[in-house]
């Protein structure tokens, strides 16, 4: 047992004289900041989600009862919507203040709705009911 004591002492002394321990890859300000940003990105508040929706263009496709397919780009920062029908014709509508839901209109065209339901009125045609599919 006495012979093991000098060996253990020598091992401890040699280990203490070695290089400084290197930082683990998970240490450091950069890694910590990336981790915090990733956690923050996952925990968006309702206000942040709403802000993102209000400050970008959102595309929605509607299928209507008259067999028309509408592709609508809601340009929230500009308070406009561009409606394209199945034949490629496009019209720009301006946002109106609605009690609830959406309301866009311009020169004989109108898109009103709430949730996935909408009513599309095109110049000179009867209004048709539509449903968002995307």
TrEMBL record:
Highest taxon listed in the record's lineage: Bacteria
Ranges where the C-type lysozyme inhibitor domain occurs: 62-128
InterPro entries the record matches: MliC (IPR018660), MliC_sf (IPR036328)
Keyword match Lipoprotein: yes
Keyword presence, Magnesium: no
Keywords linked to the UniProt accession: Lipoprotein, Membrane, Palmitate, Signal
Secretion signal, residue range per the UniProt entry: none
Protein name (Swiss-Prot/TrEMBL): MliC family protein
Organism this protein belongs to: Brevundimonas pondensis
Lineage of the species this protein comes from: Bacteria, Pseudomonadati, Pseudomonadota, Alphaproteobacteria, Caulobacterales
């Amino acid at each position: 047992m006495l012979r093991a004591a000098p060996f253990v002492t020598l091992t401890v002394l040699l280990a203490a004289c070695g290089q400084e321990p290197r930082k683990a890859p998970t240490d450091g300000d950069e890694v910590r900041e990336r981790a915090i940003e990733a956690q923050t990105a996952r925990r968006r508040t309702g206000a942040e989600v709403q802000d993102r929706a209000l400050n970008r263009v959102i595309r929605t496709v509607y299928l209507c009862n008259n067999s028309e397919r509408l592709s609508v780009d809601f340009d929230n920062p500009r308070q406009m919507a561009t409606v394209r029908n199945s034949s490629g014709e496009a019209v720009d509508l301006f946002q109106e203040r609605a009690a609830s839901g959406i309301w866009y209109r311009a020169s004989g065209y109108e898109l009103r709705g709430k949730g996935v339901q909408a009513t599309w009125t095109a110049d000179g045609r009867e209004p048709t009911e539509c449903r968002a599919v995307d």
